[in-house]
């Protein structure tokens, strides 16, 4: 299974949510809660992705007692984006997420962000693939039992 199949099986909207780097953490929290998502890509003035900010980043700032009205997502975001390509294998992606301790990965093709996949997306896709494999196996066994 590859990343493109995971993007194809995502439930709900496939919209890519972004946030400008000058947005306050307070506004990030409002938007993330409203959209029920755990991370947003941070964009520059031209709309180009320059980082990512997640609920984990916000929790860290809580611990530092940061002023969420004055601090921007651009100040706390992860700047060095780790990305995957649509053709990347799911096992490679899982290894990357585990080794880098990340839960959100932008999917990029030809310098364009196609979406973000999460560890939850991987689990759902793997579960669906397992269910399909079990169904095929049951059909195979049933067809062989009927013909014998």
How does the helix and strand content classify structurally?
Answer: alpha+beta
Say what the CATH topology is.
CBS-domain
Give me the number of helical elements: 6
CATH architecture: Roll
How do the helices and strands line up, and which of them pair or pack?
Layout: H1 3-9, E1 18-20, H2 25-35, E2 39-43, E3 49-54, H3 55-63, H4 73-76, H5 90-100, E4 104-109, E5 112-118, H6 119-147
Parallel strand pairs: 1-2
Antiparallel strand pairs: 2-3, 4-5
Short description:
The chain is an alpha+beta fold. It has a single domain (3-147), classed as Roll (CBS-domain). The protein has six helices and five strands; from the N terminus they run αβαββαααββα.
What does this structure look like?
It is a single chain. With 148 residues, the chain is α+β, with helices and mostly antiparallel strands. It has helices spanning 3-9, 25-35, 55-63, 73-76, 90-100, 119-147; strands spanning 18-20, 39-43, 49-54, 104-109, 112-118. The strands form 2 sheets. The chain has a 3-stranded mixed β-sheet with strand order 1-2-3. Strands 4-5 form a two-stranded antiparallel ribbon. Strand 1, helix 2 and strand 2 (39-43) form a beta-alpha-beta unit. Helix 1 (3-9) packs across helix 6. The longest helix has 29 residues, at 119-147. The protein starts with a helix and ends with a helix.
